[in-house]
Write a structure and sequence with these properties.
GO molecular function: oxidoreductase activity
Protein name: SDR family oxidoreductase
Structural class: alpha/beta
InterPro entries: NAD(P)-bd_dom_sf, SDR_fam
Keywords: Oxidoreductase
Oligomer: single chain
Low-confidence stretches: none
Distance between the termini: 24 Å
Mean pLDDT: 92
Largest sheet: 7 strands, parallel
Number of strands: 7
CATH class: Alpha Beta
Bound molecules: NADP nicotinamide-adenine-dinucleotide phosphate
Length: 289
């Protein structure tokens, strides 16, 4: 591990495009040391070079991991701990959606694996570094598209799969995770909050193009200017930077204001239950709290 230099250090997942790249760029412009977690080395290197050119910040670091693959997450957490003496900010931003049910290398439905278990495992592997760097903040990027968790069939073995249903269930996991993690981190100097960044233009849904097509139709019908990732990033950066949020944890924010979470995610029993299932599905050597 390198010696501590006291410099603010952040890790942003999905930092090569859309919201993650906008967040990483804004943090780099503030002079923060930024780790970019990406799954494709080439796309990551291109993004890093662009962020460096735009901000003049040379303290940018690339970490490669497919966040649907638990062995890749373990390896990247190890690299982060070797390269960063401290970590003050973790932004779990990477997210994706699938038109059809697919399985991760560990046999888990891929949206659940990437959008919920990915941040769950990465955060738990880095939580000691965050605690040792306190005050530190974790920001989870959620969405308003939430489908109730079926705890008896999280892996979609008995229910028909659909892109929005799979995405919505996995992203509700971000809220369950935020609330339970906040409870476990009380008194450790590490806060965790979830943010809905609004609807904005991005590559979400990938080659299916579902998000893009939907947004274009919406914009045409209502003459609406689709917000940019840079606009959406301001909501996320508020949670990362605002001094008045130094002690605020376990909350769900929209545009700088608290917003209501779906009832299921407000049930502490449900939050504990998903935590236990997630622990069993990832079997990290230790989890927070
Ligand atoms: N766009 C919206 O309107 C909207 C609304 C609400 C919430 N959100 C949330 O905002 C976040 C960012 O999404 P975005 O809209 O900016 O989409 P995006 O442009 O597609 O960015 C998603 C990022 O996540 C990465 N990613 C996807 N699967 C991954 C995996 N298995 N391993 C590692 N990285 C992976 C992508 O990498 P690649 O480039 O390699 O695919 C990309 O860097 C997501 O959590 C999403 O749920 C978006």
């Amino acid at each position: 591990m390198p010696p501590t230099d006291g410099k603010r250090t952040a890790l942003v997942t999905g930092a090569n495009s859309g919201l993650g790249k906008a967040i990483a760029t804004a943090l780099a412009a503030e002079g923060t040391r930024v780790g970019l977690v990406v799954r494709d080395r080439e796309r990551g290197a291109t993004a890093l070079a662009e962020i460096r050119a735009a901000t003049g910040n040379d303290d940018l670091h690339l970490f490669i991991a497919d966040l649907s693959d638990q062995s890749a997450i373990r390896a990247v957490a190890e690299s982060v701990q070797q390269q960063f003496a401290q970590l003050h900010l973790l932004i779990n931003n990477a997210g994706t959606a699938f038109a059809e049910r697919r399985l991760s290398p560990q046999g888990i439905e891929s949206a659940l694996a990437t959008n919920h278990l990915g941040p769950f495992l990465l955060t738990n592997l880095l939580v000691d570094l965050l605690k040792a760097s306190a005050p530190a903040r974790i920001v989870n990027v959620g969405t308003r598209i939430n489908t109730a968790m079926d705890f008896d069939d999280l892996n979609w073995e008995r229910r028909p799969y659909g892109m929005m249903k799979g995405y919505g269930q996995s992203k509700l996991g971000n809220l369950h995770f935020t609330f339970e993690l906040a409870r476990r981190l009380q008194g450790n100097g590490v806060t965790v909050n979830c943010v809905f960044p609004g609807v904005f233009k991005s590559n979400l849904g990938g080659t299916d193009g579902a998000q893009g097509a939907f947004l274009k139709l919406f914009a045409r019908l209502f003459g609406w200017a689709i917000p940019s990732p840079e606009q959406a990033a301001r909501r996320v950066l508020y949670l990362a930077d605002a001094p008045e949020l130094a002690d605020v944890s376990g909350q769900y924010f929209g545009n700088r204001k608290l917003i209501p979470a779906p009832a299921q995610a407000l049930d502490p029993e449900a939050n504990r239950r998903l935590w236990q299932i997630s622990e069993a599905l990832t079997a990290p050597s230790q989890t927070a709290g």
